[in-house]
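User: You have something folded?
Assistant:
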Amino acid sequence: MIAPLTCQNYINGGWIPAQSGATLESRNPADWRELVATFPKSGAADVDAAVAAARKAYRTWRLVPAPARAEMIYRVGELLLQHKEKLAQLIAQEMGKPITEARGDIQEGIDCALYNAGEGRRLFGQTTPSEMPNKFAMTVRMPVGVCALITPWNFPVAIPCWKAMPALVCGNTVILKPAKDTPACATLLIQLFQEAGLPAGVINLVQGSGEEVGRALIEHPGIDLVSFTGSSRTGAEVGAACGRTHKRVCLELGGKNAQVVMEDADLELALEGALWGAFGTTGQRCTTTSRLILHRDIKDEFTAKLLERTQKLRLGSGTDPLTEVGPLINSAQLQRVSHYLEIAHAEGAKVLIGGEKNSKGELQHGYFFQPTILDKVSPDMQVAREEIFGPVLVLIEVKSFEEAIAVLNDTPYGLSSSVYTCNLNRAFQAMRDIEAGITYINGPTIGAEVHLPFGGVKQTGNGHREAGSAALDVFTEWKTVYVDFSGSLQRAQIDNRA
């Protein structure tokens, strides 16, 4: 067990409290009696200080050669590897995900560091022929400026790394505003950036609520770019606010992901995918498998197997190595999931397993909800269309492959998707016809590897992608450069044609 931490803001290279002196508490979602950390209840004045530090640091950081910037990010990766178990234990305690998943969270940060360290020696532009004689044309990437990174609690190390590492390699300075449910995780992560040698003001941390700190960052005239991960509803507000002030904005939002299982699928493989996709991270992922679309020929057999395996899932604290499903993050999320079960009952869905809070024995002081499977669900029901963000899987029966794809696409979201089939033609049709940013064939609706783009369509985002080289397009501006060595005035499209 990790002793309670006293967290602070990190601004201009120093650890300081909120200017108001006010603090908030972070508690273990598996046992709310356990205090994990206290952290600053920051406000607009703290954001002002962080922005001033970041703007000052930007003037010199952007001039540091990109390979040198990248070497510091590589050192962050080495430090993450050294402290992997300590950070993983903290994630399991503060956020609640099982320790094996927490280690994966850190590994994603390590992988992100290694990948982006390489980008420091690329950051490719382009050269292209000019239409005029004795003229050279090229494009180069330029940093955007000061970036506000607003991150969620479900991947408290991986997602900040996704955002901060490419932003810094590209020459930007950043201000991280983590979720108020995981302030300790953010603190330990920023300590590693500090230890890696980043200059004062290049990376800053401001703790607090979205209503105060998040809003102050989004509306601040000194912020050039906002990168936000969260709900589609909040994302729409963030996008609107950034539009009014002409900020660049990258939104990674919700999902209502589906896994299709056809009659020719490897059912055991599909079963493993459905269990992990639906109940991994307690369903608290934007890539969670929320809908299971089953061909009618295998529905009964597959459902029976699924119920048998779901019944055996072990709930518990994330720090317990035997835990398979941890708690929900907080009481509000527990109430949200419970409310969706009320909606399911009202809509006529049938609860096959679960459907209730679990407050028995060792779980009585935590925010636990039973892994739940709903049957008799039609595509137009709320539980089939809205993001629940909990361990709730709905079953939808279809008669054909074409119907399965139509049902999968019938959602406001489009993040991850999955089709289990042994038919090669169907696999390629699915890749072509599914409306999603990620499609898996014979794999669950999990996220992307760090060297590939991550993001979606429709209400899942605003068209940008995180991870991979696509992240560079978020955190850089294109500049076109012409060098005319003709010694005379040449005017494009006017006097360069006979």
Observations:
- The radius of gyration is 24 Å.
- The mean pLDDT is 96.
- DSSP finds 15 helices and 22 strands in the chain.
- Residues 99-119 form the longest helix (21 residues).
